[in-house]
Amino acid sequence: MSTDGDVAAVRIGDHRVGPGHETFVVAEIGINHNGEVGLAKRLIAAAVNSGAQAVKFQKRTPELCVPPGQRDVPRETPWGLISYGEYRERIEFGRDEYAEIDAFCRSMGIRWFASCWDDESLDFIEQFDPPCYKIASACLTDDALLEHTRAKGRPLVLSTGMSSLDQIDHAVDVLGREDLVLMHTTSTYPSSPDELNLRVIPRLAERYGVPVGYSAHEVGLAPSLAAVVLGACVVERHITLDRAMWGSDQAASVEPQGLTRLVRDIRLWEQAQGDGEKRVYESELPAMARLRRVGV
Fold it and tell me: Where are the domains of the chain?
């Protein structure tokens, strides 16, 4: 880790994440692949073309993560009316699929990682040498999973949706602050603008002294750019090829052209923010000579 002021930068792969470094943009594929490796590859390619630096998946062991009372609940899916448990099984990739994804990401020059919802999923993803792990908001209060994830010795990205400051305090105490990035988020899909509360971003940075990012679930791009202006060092957006596609996260996702615009605007902001020192630029001198009558 290296320090920038009071906040230590976290290295994720080849990137330093923290104040003073380029915003780390993550394209969240999650389960928007609908269990199809071909669709996952198209989403990865779209993320690369947009300028994102990483893609993220979600990994669950259905028999551990699906509550018994929900396993037999009928659900309409692209495969017809099936149980929720069968649906969860169908959208999970196994070793062969992730090996294909891993090889494809390497060929495209982009990093990938996952949020793992249980110990078995975490141990499974470890074989692919991810640059970090994401801990989902739903898992923030699962001390055993937090400890198991920390024991892998990799940088951690912790989402803080649907969590109080007391709960975040406890999770940070369990994980420690070393190689930790917190993500401000609101866990509704899509999120209402009046519930985004972006001013929490600098508050979290001040409270915990670690890099803070923003995991966005809103419709549109402006709040995600505003999060960077407020200090977010990471921006994570769900990506889809078409927001009208089937799937629970599609409506809260952005299409490839939207992610491309967001990355472009973030990079423009990074150029435009400057260093805070007022100066006269050489490019202004002709206008000064032409328009000013008094002064030098």
Answer: 2-291
pTM: 0.92
Number of Cβ atoms within 10 Å of the Cβ of 129? 9
Which residues on adjacent β-strands are paired with residue 149?
Answer: none
Per-residue pLDDT tens over the stretch 101-142: 999 999 999 999 999 999 999 999 999 999 999 999 999 999
Q: How confident is the model at residue 164 (pLDDT cuts 50, 70, 90)?
A: very high
Fold category of 2-291 in CATH? TIM Barrel (3.20.20)
d(CA 163, CA 39): 33
Whether the CB-CB separation of 20 and 10 falls below 8 Å is answered with: no
Nearest-angstrom CA–CA distance, 53 and 41:
15
